[in-house]
Amino acid sequence: MKDWRIAVAAAVATIAVIGAAQAITDTAFKYSSPKVGFFSINPVAMTSDQSFMDYVRTSTSLTREGGAGACFGTGVNLPEGAKMTTLAVWYQSDDVGADPEFSIERQRHSDGTLETVAHVVGQDDSQTRKLVTVTVGSTVATVDNQRYSYAFRVCPFAIQNVFRSARIRYTYSDAGD
C-alpha cells in the first residue's frame, strides 16, 4: 500500500515542476498588467548617414565637426507587440538658426518605405543640457518586427548642437519576443 502512495506523490511532483517550467519559458505567458521598459541610446551607438561626414563621437556626446549637414542613426530593437509611449532626448545647443531634430522611424521590410513614428525638435539654445520629449502616436506605437525594422535618428544641423543620450519608454504584456 505504501508503494503506490510514493508513486502518486512522485507523479504529482513531476507534473508540478513541468508546469512551472513551462510557465517560466512559455512565450505565450501574459502579465496581469503591462510592464514598463526603457530602451536607452548612447552616442557610441550612432553612425553617420554620409561617409564623408566629419564628426566626434565619445561615450557621452556626438557632434558634427563641419561640412554638409548629415544625420546619425542606430537600430532600435524592442519586443514584438510592445507599445512605444515616449521618446526622451538629452542634448545641448547654442545655435539659434539650426535646431537639432530627433526621430524614431520604421522601414517596411517588403518595399523599404520609411515612416516617422515620433519626431521632436530641440529648440533650447542656452548651451546647457536639456531634455525634450514627445509622445508616440497610437497608430504607430505598436512594435511589428515581422513587417518593420526600427531606427533612432539625430540630425544636428550645426556643429554647436550636441546629442547626449536618448531613451524610448515602452510597455509590454508578455514575456516573449
Describe this structure as you would to a colleague:
It is a single chain. This protein has one domain (30-174): Jelly Rolls (Sandwich), CATH 2.60.120.260. 14% of the residues lie in helices and 46% in strands. The chain has 1 helix and 11 strands; from the N terminus they run H-E-E-E-E-E-E-E-E-E-E-E. It has a 5-stranded antiparallel sheet, with no helix packed on it. Strand 3 (54-57) and strand 4 (62-66) form a beta hairpin. The termini are far apart.
Q: Could you list the spans in which at least 5 consecutive residues all have pLDDT below 50?
A: none
Tell me the CATH superfamily: Galactose-binding domain-like
Sheet of most strands: 5 strands, antiparallel
Please state the second-level CATH architecture: Sandwich
Elements, N to C (H/E): HEEEEEEEEEEE
How many DSSP helices? 1
Distance between the termini: 49 Å
Overall helicity = 10-25%
Rounded Rg: 23 Å
CATH topology: Jelly Rolls
Share in β-strands: over 45%
The CATH class: Mainly Beta
- Strands side by side in the biggest sheet: 2-5-10-7-8
- Indicate the structural class: mainly beta
Mean pLDDT: 84
Q: Quick one: how many beta strands?
A: 11
Q: How many separate domains?
A: 1
Overall shape: it is: elongated
